[in-house]
Specification:
The complex is a heterodimer of chains A (347) and B (324). With 347 residues, chain A is an alpha/beta fold. Chain A contains 14 helices and 14 strands. Chain A has two domains: 185 residues, 3-Layer(aba) Sandwich (Rossmann fold); 144 residues, Rossmann fold. In chain B, a hairpin with a 2-residue loop joins strand 5 and strand 6. In chain B, helix 1 runs antiparallel to helix 10 and helix 2 runs parallel beside helix 8. Classes of the chains: A alpha/beta (347), B alpha/beta (324).
Chain lengths: 347, 324
């Protein structure tokens, strides 16, 4: 399969379009999906190719829209509901958590399955602030029955989109704002990445960095600095929060004996804590140091650019955590990946 | 449009069957072997029977926590229902759902849910699928008057009207939400049909204890929906005889949120007896035939319930089945 470099948003679009070509039952809805801005351009090509019958706007009615997606999926459709800001998905939680997640189980599979996809944009952007930036992975992933994926690379953005659109369970795709302009190799043909399979992004022997979504890029930047310091970091991108590839994470932790978990949300009851608990329960004997969590400070997200800089963790935090394992001084200068600074609003 | 004699006889048989099925379940529930919160629908049967009786093959039904009437009216199997209440592997949801999560998809009864208003949106979603595919199928959602206090209800009305969805929204207005009367939930003089009309839906209110009236209304509405008029709201005024959840009368439990005299007024308007009286009046059926129908159903239902109780429980090794 030939590859070329695409942006993350182009890869999402291509994954959606190729899936829609193969499956007439897929339709896309949600606020702004047919705007010219097209959710960072990820739905524009689908609209151009398949028209307004398969890509159509919706009112701000997140709860009912989730129920409508369920009802359509129960009749054999594959709806994609897009939330341009994931925070609005809180309004859809009843339908998604109480019904979609449990549908197959509580009707013993006899009411059918629900192949629906929820795409939601998360994370830092342009002073998004407290209610336009939150990362909902641990909230969705808490409930059995919903898959939650967080593609970090263009290749995974396409492959996981295709996988979600072929799965027969509800899937939430969380897309980090600053990733849309990131680039990477993407195969031209249709392909699916397995949901529930981690990717080892960098092989190393001294410390394991489990990083999700945008923080994979930060971990890659951190690993370069760490290599200069003589620390060989391994980066594991879980890609899927539920189902979780526990064995890939454990294998890496057992090898390196040191674990840093970097997550785009808060620590308490969060994904980073889950991975720390996993290591403590199942790799305790191999751990040579306490697990370090790199997460959001325990306050809502601020708006001011200066406060954002203090709020969002980045490569430097990962470097410092790793350095502390080896008794090295913290404070090594490490720039975050440049996309964070280059992001332009207003979305 | 009016139901002919054959149709009315059919509707009567469904009413009688459901009344006896539910009465039997009420009796058995008191034995404490059905360990699932159960909301009995005695007194409200005509709504389910009238609407489901007017549906066609291919139409789909969703409902709420007081689900047995709709499940049975749509052709759901009583043995699978009794098994579900007993938590047995032969239950319609294999002991994973309980009374409030029933399914009989092969009969068009897709699912019920315990959270108010969920299925109103879900039915609209199925209707959207039918609309996209250019089908003439209709999706129906049954719900209670308290769902008209949920936000999702209004989101759905708005959306269904925008897209002219082929969905029939049937409100079983039984005056109470758990133990809360309409007076604490809706302003005086509230007209639910007027609310629906304000969103652009057609709306109609009928006597929900008159199966013929419900059937006739549903027949006409369904024809209009299939012709493309869009979503319709049907309010059926009715009354639940038993407590909100459980097998007892409120007065036997010392509850005073409603008066026994009110219940007795509504029991005098029993939908099953009214239908029987009408058929006897026109000599479509005799008292003896009614007694025989009841005896036949009784024997069939007793046997099915007894058989359900003999079934094995689900195997604990199957705990994780159907999570994905």
């Amino acid at each position: 399969m030939s590859e070329r470099n695409l942006t993350y948003r182009e890869a999402l679009s291509e994954g959606l379009v190729q899936a829609m070509e193969r499956d007439d039952s897929i339709f896309v809805t949600g606020i702004a999906v047919d705007y010219s801005s097209g959710i960072f351009g990820t739905t524009s090509e689908a609209l151009r190719r398949f028209g307004p019958k398969r890509v159509f706007d919706a009112p701000a009615m997140e709860n009912a829209l989730a129920g409508i997606a369920i009802g359509a999926a129960a009749m054999g459709k594959r709806p994609v509901v897009v939330h341009p800001r994931a925070d609005f998905a809180f309004l859809a939680m009843d339908q998604l958590v109480n019904l979609a997640a449990k549908w197959k189980y509580m009707f013993a599979g006899r009411a059918g399955s629900l192949p629906l996809v929820v795409r939601a944009v998360i994370g830092r952007g342009w002073g998004q602030g407290a209610t336009h930036s939150q990362s909902l992975q641990s909230i969705f992933a808490h409930f059995p029955g919903i898959a939650v994926v967080m593609p970090a690379s263009p290749g995974d953005a396409k492959g996981l989109t295709a996988a979600a659109l072929a799965a027969d369970h509800p899937t939430v795709i969380l897309e980090y704002r600053t990733l849309y302009e990131s680039t990477g190799p993407v195969a031209e043909d249709y392909y699916r990445e397995e949901i529930g399979r981690a990717r080892t992004v960098r092989i190393g022997k001294d410390v394991t960095i489990v990083a999700a979504s945008q923080l994979v890029l930060e971990a890659i930047a951190a690993a370069k600095t760490l290599a200069d310091m003589g620390i060989d970091a391994e980066i594991v991108d879980p890609r899927s929060i539920r189902p979780l590839d526990e064995s890939a994470i454990l294998a890496s932790v057992r090898k390196t004996g040191r674990l840093i978990v970097a997550d785009t949300s808060w620590s308490l009851c969060g994904f980073a804590s889950e991975i720390a608990a996993l290591a403590a329960e199942r790799a305790f004997a191999q751990l040579r140091a306490p697990v370090r969590r790199i997460t959001l400070p325990d306050c809502p997200a601020p708006v001011s650019y200066k406060l954002e800089e203090a709020f969002y963790p980045g490569a430097a935090d990962i470097v410092n955590a790793a350095a502390s394992f080896f008794g090295m001084a913290e404070g090594k200068e490490t720039a975050s990946n440049k996309l964070v600074g280059e992001f332009k609003g207003p979305y | 449009m009016t139901a002919d004699r054959q149709t009315l006889l059919y509707l009567y048989r469904r009413l009688s069957y459901i009344r006896q099925a539910e009465s039997l379940l009420v009796r058995l529930y008191k034995e404490q072997q059905m360990r699932t919160p159960t909301h009995f629908g005695i007194g409200q049967e005509a709504v389910a029977v009238g609407v489901c009786g007017a549906l066609r093959q291919g139409d789909v039904v969703y409902t709420h926590h007081r689900s047995h009437n709709h499940y049975l009216a749509q052709g759901g199997d009583f043995f699978a229902l009794a098994s579900e209440l007993y938590g047995r592997s032969t239950g319609c949801s294999e002991g994973r759902g309980g009374s409030v999560h029933l399914t009989a998809r092969e009969s068009g009864f897709i699912a019920s849910s315990a959270i108010l208003g969920e299925m109103v949106a879900v039915a609209a979603g199925s209707a959207l699928a039918f609309k996209i595919d250019g089908e003439t199928r209709v999706a129906v959602s049954f719900f209670g008057d308290a769902t008209c206090e949920e936000g999702v209800f209004y989101e759905t009305l708005n959306y269904a009207a925008i897209h002219k969805l082929p969905v029939l929204l049937v409100c079983e207005n039984n005056l109470y939400s758990t133990e809360s009367s309409l007076s604490v939930r809706q302003p005086p003089g509230t007209d639910l049909c007027a609310r629906a009309r304000a969103f652009g839906l057609s709306a109609l209110s009928v006597d929900g204890n008159d199966v013929e009236a419900v059937y006739n209304a549903a027949e006409e509405i369904l024809q209009n929906i299939r012709a493309g008029v869009g979503p319709t709201f049907l309010e059926c005024r009715t009354y639940r005889w038993l407590e909100h959840v459980g097998p007892n009368y409120d007065h036997d439990m010392g509850r005073t949120y409603r008066q026994r005299a009110e219940l007795e007024e509504w029991m005098a308007r029993c939908p099953v007896k009214r239908c029987a009286a009408k058929l006897m009046e026109s000599q479509a059926i005799s008292e003896q035939e009614i007694a025989r129908i009841e005896a036949d159903f009784d024997a069939e239902l007793e046997a099915a319930a007894a058989k359900a109780r003999q079934q094995p429980f689900p195997d604990a090794s199957d705990l994780f089945r159907n999570v994905w």
